[in-house]
Structures are given as C-alpha cells and as structure tokens.
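Reopening this one. Same input as before:
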Amino acid sequence: MANLLSFGADAVAGGAFGIVGTALGRVASYFERKQTFAQEEKRWGHELQLHELQMRTNKQETEMELAIAAQKGSWDGLKVSLEADANIGIAAQWVINILRLVRPTLTLLLWLITAWIFARTQDGDIANAAVFAATAATLWWFGDRAPKPKSPVLGS
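Same output, byte for byte:
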C-alpha cells in the first residue's frame, strides 16, 4: 500500500511539475514573441526609413532629369531658331529686316488694340480679358528669348 501511495504521490507531483513546466514554457514563449515582435518593429522601421530615403533620392533624380530636359529643350529650340534664321537664304536686306520686325510689330499692334478696347469698352471683364491675352502673347513671344539663369544642379 505504501508503494501504491508513493506511486500516486509521484504521479501527482509529476503532473504538477508538468503543468508548472508548461506554464513556464508559455510565459517564456510570451516574452520570446514579445521580443521577436519588438525586433520586427525595429526592422520595419528601418525598412520604412530606407524606403523614404529611396523616395527622396528618386524625387531628386526626377527633378534633375526634368531640369536637364528643360535645359536641353531650351537649347534645341534656340538651335532650331538660329538655323531657321540662318536658312533664310539669299535675300535682299530689306526683306530680312521686315522678317525680323514681324514679331515686334505684331506685339505693338496687339497692345494698341488692347489699349483701344480698354478705352472704348464699359465692360471690365472684356478689358481684363484683352489685357490678359496681350500679356500672355507678349510673354510667349519674347519670354523664351531672355537669358536663362545658370542652374547649380547642372553645374553650368
């Protein structure tokens, strides 16, 4: 009987230690998962920082490419304009002079018409539209002929 009691006590003690061991394993597993999650959060934060740096780098590259393309387009336009001017061919000087006066003459006429509209109309919206159109045309005709500022990005 003592043997049987000893056997039962060992079974109960073994079961109790098994439950305690399982509980300790679960507690340890909880802290392990918590530590793993903290590591993952740090890794995700690091990946987020890398992604933001890459986005800034891509934005800067895009801005540089756009600046280069704008500069190239401006130079291409100037080149074509100069080639067209050079390809007038052999003509009398007065013809060449008249060709060069077309844009300034059109601008002067446009502003005279705008002034006439401004003086004659009683409608402020019409006068505003005429001034807007004349300003836009003038800046479009002559704006591209102004020297461009040197860009520090391009090293010019």
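So the earlier flakiness isn't reproducible anymore. For the record, Residues 90-147 form one domain.
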